[in-house]
């Protein structure tokens, strides 16, 4: 295991902290605004309403990230965990949004459903016992494997089917950033290695600017200042919506637990039931705050685990400052628009490396697991089925919607299978694979 440059409680110099915080911001910002943008576009909301969703997402992400890192009483993981809007809730949100209840129904259902996470958090010390190393290793592996398709699309410059998807220019730009980040991590000293991702993205951005690859339309159209608008859409409480959101919250508990365990691995911190309880409680309360502030529910971001794994910067102080930057992005939308102007291939070059490092962390964890037929079955079946859903999501298209809601994530499928198989398969202590 690599030596951490800055452990969890370290405080780097302020100038360096800002640079390292920007590194996390670059990794997370696209994911934070993606969910409100998708909902706004699919539900055909007026542009001002979509902006309300986006600004609130940035503002609340920053607040919840700060609390998750620093903690308030029993609330918070007290590790460098980045919080943001979650795609786990999109299917349920769209189903409610197209009904008579609209966005008010989404937010009201989210507010009531958050009680599932808030109440569930107090059972996390018992849940922690269900995650021995073989299960934790599988979960960490699936987090990394599930993120690789995202990085590949960034690398290629968009979504499959886009006219410029996988253009040689996009691939060349992404490969350039990838090589630069690898070189900085391997041979850079001090700040050049610790801030390898943000330096690589900054250099890639400047090259893309020189080549005319950057679109400043969103920057020009963004407001300089925006006031948060609590209860902008109002609240409604459809029973079917509350049930759908509650199921999504149950799935999020599993995914967040996996992210927290993966974060513990890369920060070299032993994750206890108390950690999980504080982290999930913060997640649930943050989602309740998000509903009141007019945006969608939250969960922890696995992208930023890759940043820590790659750079060895595990300081929660750094991610706290990143939370402050998110708050500023929510209040000054032009700041967020400037970050979003970074071309996808530039992000893809760094993202592919970050997410692959999470896979490597999972492999290292599984390497320490006893080599037995039982453990081999747990690992093979869990990862195989998790990848099946990740690579072919249409596998679930003809099943009932609630099944797709629960098992639509490869992380969830892999995690639940590993948990279940570990409980039901008999131990074979004397049998070695």
From TrEMBL:
GO molecular function: xanthine transmembrane transporter activity
Domain of life: Bacteria
Membrane topology listed for this record: Multi-pass membrane protein
Keywords recorded for this protein, A-Z: Cell membrane, Membrane, Transmembrane, Transmembrane helix, Transport
PROSITE patterns per record: XANTH_URACIL_PERMASE (PS01116)
TM regions (residue ranges): 50-67, 79-98, 104-127, 134-156, 168-185, 192-214, 234-254, 317-340, 346-363, 375-391, 406-425
Localization annotation: Cell membrane
Pfam families: Xan_ur_permease
Gene Ontology CC terms: plasma membrane
Main location (coarse class): membrane
InterPro entries in the record: NCS2, UacT-like, Xan_ur_permease
NCBIfam families to which the protein is assigned, alphabetical: ncs2, NCS2_1, pbuX
Protein family according to the UniProt entry: Belongs to the nucleobase:cation symporter-2 (NCS2) (TC 2.A.40) family.
Protein name: Purine permease
The organism's taxonomic lineage, starting at the top: Bacteria, Pseudomonadati, Pseudomonadota, Gammaproteobacteria, Pasteurellales
